[in-house]
Amino acid sequence: MNTTPLNRREFLTTSALAAGALALPGCASNAQATDAALDTTSDTSGGGTSGGGAGAFSFVHLTDMHVTTRRHGVDGYRTCVESVMALDPKPELVLMGGDLAFDGLYSPKATFAEQVKIYKEVSDSMGIPYYNCMGNHDVLGWNARRKVETTDPDLGKKYIMDALNWEKPYYSFDHKGWHFVVLDCIYPTQEDHGPGYEARIGDEQLEWLAYDLGAAGDRPKIAVTHIAAFCNKAQIKGDPNIPGMPAGAVIRDTAKLQAVLERHNVKALLQGHTHRPEEFRWHDVWYLTSPAASGAWWAGDFTGAGPGYTVLNCHPNGNLTWDMRPYNWQPQLDPADDLERKRNAELKAKRQEQARLRDLERAGR
Ligand SMILES: [Fe+2]
User: Fold this and answer.
1) pLDDT value at position 94?
2) Chunked mean pLDDT (size 10), the chain, 365 residues
3) Which stretches within the chain are classed as H helix?
């Protein structure tokens, strides 16, 4: 039985400390979120073990930045980070949702290393504490198309964890009376081709999670995973042939994870990976998939949303509200990006047709 004590700020990868900014009322624009009567007169920040003792602050969920030198992606990520830094009130921390680098699965090690280095440099420049979550593209070579030897000592999660001074792939921390858990859903497997992965939390981590959340008592709690516990891919595509739990898009042991989150009153599980924003509520837990910071891998918005992130507001009464926001970045494709140009053109044509039909229908028969 693993009853590891709470692990505060162990994975803080920037030395900058956040200012004690308070969330302001009126910035909760998510109409579906619980409407909280904001208590801005009592700042109980800095501790507390119940929702009533929690402090007020905002933070950002930034996911799927896929940092790359291709498609001017480095400039794109800098623009994203500058947008976060300009937020008012200033977020007190950032949860990085995974797929931090463009890719370690299929890329040469030197290319992946450069992407990780740039990710760290640009993220550090925020001057805001940030916490890393493991994405499938953040592991080196766990794929049949790997560009490294399976004997490489940096294979798997080791390279990025060493480069980012990241001690454990899953962990938790507290901030102003709120409890945060960062999960690792990239579960190692052995395939015919060698090391691989599947989307799974795994029994060992689930047991750790249950006791970690238990130890947090009545504190309001938020968890983050890269691959989703809920993903409505089949419904979005309108395709009855897509399975309800597509491999790679939904955590295999989602039912076990949901049960743990539910019984410990976790407010929300923040998700990424699909580059499609979604909001889903089940048994009092919000499952929120943020827009990708890279949009469609810095090539547009044909995945369903342009580049963006989620700003979340933690209220003193323990309520959570949020706002999924775009930031201003125009895709700059490389000459070889014919497929992406085609997808953008298809989306543009679809939008034009939608506008034509809307005008027709507004004009009446
Ligand atoms: Fe991913």
Assistant:
1) 98
2) 34 32 27 28 31 79 98 98 97 98 97 98 97 98 96 97 98 97 98 97 98 97 98 91 91 98 97 97 98 97 95 96 96 96 97 98 93
3) 73-85, 109-124, 158-163, 203-215, 233-237, 254-263, 338-363
CA 249 / ligand 1 centre spacing (Å): 9
Distance of CA 76 to the CA centre of its chain: 17
CA of 340 to the centre of ligand 1 (A): 18
* Paired tokens of 64: 């799927």
Residues forming a β-bridge with 326: 308
Any idea how long the chain is? 365
What is this structure's pTM? 0.86
Structure tokens at 176: 């102003």
Q: How far is the CA of 180 from the centre of ligand 1 (A)?
A: 21
Ligand 1 mean position to 178 CA, how many Å? Answer: 27
**Strand intervals (E) in the chain:** 57-62, 93-96, 130-132, 171-175, 178-182, 186-191, 194-199, 221-224, 266-271, 278-282, 285-289, 308-314, 320-326
Ligand 1 mean position to 157 CA, how many Å?
A: 14
CB-based neighbours (< 5 A) of ligand 1, an ion: 99, 135-136, 273
**Residues near 122 by beta carbon (within 8 Å), at least 6 away in sequence:** 67, 74, 77, 78, 81
| Residue 298 φ/ψ region, left for φ over 0, alpha for ψ in the -120 to 50 degree band, beta for the rest | left
Going from the Cα of 199 to the center of ligand 1, the distance in angstroms, rounded, reads: 10
C-alpha 227 – ligand 1 centre gap (Å): 6
